[in-house]
Amino acid sequence: MAGPVVGGPHGPYRQSERTDLYRSHANDLISNGHAYRCFCPPERLDAMAQHRSQAGLAPGYDRKCGELSAEESEDRAASGETHIIRLKVEGYPMFNDLVYGKTGQNKPNNKKLDFIDRVYDDPILIKSDGHPTYHLANVVDDHCMKITHVIRGTEWMPSTPMHMALYNAFKWTPPQFGHVPLLVDQSGQKLSKRNADIDLSSFKDKQGVFASTLVNFASLLGWSHSQKSDVLSLQELEQIFNLKITRGNTVVAFEKLWFLQKAHAQRFAASGGPEFDEMVNRVSSVVTEKYPLEKLNTILKGRTIAEYVAPLIRADAKSYTDASEFVQRNSTFFTPKLEREPYAPASPSALEVPMSALHTAAAALTLVPSSHWSIETHRFNINSYDGSSSVVLPEAESDSQTSPATDKIFKKELYHYLRWALSGSAPGPGIPETMTILGRDETLRRVQDAKASTQTFGPSDGRRIPKGALPEDQSWMGTLATKR
Questions:
Q1: Where is the Glutamyl/glutaminyl-tRNA synthetase class Ib catalytic domain (predicted)?
Q2: What global pTM score does this model have?
Q3: Which of these, 13, 163, 193, 266, has the minimum number of CB atoms within 10 Å of its CB?
Q4: Start-end ranges of CATH 3.40.50.620 in the chain?
């Protein structure tokens, strides 16, 4: 890497420190006849420009000073007479663009006649204050810094023939040029770097967007690929990226940015590494700022905030956009006292599950000892729990409902009840993951608190399916199964 701060082999890297280099190269062009000093006062140039504008003609210069002898030009410059330096262009060549193919104006510059005068497109290289124009500085810098490819917006395409003319005048091999589409919003207006809403540092520093997400998002603007997924790391992009860019403006849809952010969050959560550690640190910082540690200690039970946050991120990475939003979404994990709405069944219908059956199932699930308190155990126990016999059926339907159907009804209601009991019905990780993150003590406390809040629920109407004997196979209970 090279630049104004770190330096490099082609420095200095600040344009203000390279003025002598630009003047030297401009003087070389004067010496070989490809440039000349123009001593015309601003008043003359302004009058000429105004005259042509009123006549509806394109701007141009009559090359009055181009005919001065080298001796007169040197003497007038040496005496301190104000002047500019112009490129003496004989023609603007076509060029091969990496995106658009062969393009340009391919027009001569020495026969531009109209009914007023002969004029020329001789661009200014050095201004009257001695500083270069962008066109000269850009070409000199790219050549001296050994730039091989210039990839820039299509608004620079009209200037590229001028730059090619400069390369020809210097007898330098030009870099390859590729002009990419402009980025516009939904209304077709060009995005501006002056707008902080599209500033990359703003996305990264203020909105917490990963560098990987920004690279991935930017690479897809105006470019498509043959991969199955748009979620690509920098290493993957290095392997497949090419300049088969769409011609024409590209509408920027920031919804895609947040889709990619969630996808990369899932990648980091699955693979770990420094990116995941950074996510944990950011979320932990937000938690520390927002929640008093003395209240969190009742949930943490000796764990550090980072140790508590890490599995939560892994369980809900699919929803991660930034640390603050993540903590807000999962606030119930940091709140000892839940504010629950009154419990309402998942789908009120003729098929109902008694509250006592939900209490029993929830209590049974919390009997797992801390040594076996894991996502796998909870998932197995919940999936294996057979609550079909507790489902209350209307008399007319009791004979037609099969055990799998009623078990499905029970499972749906149990999941619904557990989410209400453990997180106040807030969206978030699955129930097995939630139980594991909260830990046994906090899960048990919330289940007991939820039971106390629903003790007044009366029995459902209808005829209960007779409960059969417990099966000999108690494997559904996981570590709760009776040891035989």
A1: 10-246
A2: 0.77
A3: 193
A4: 15-180
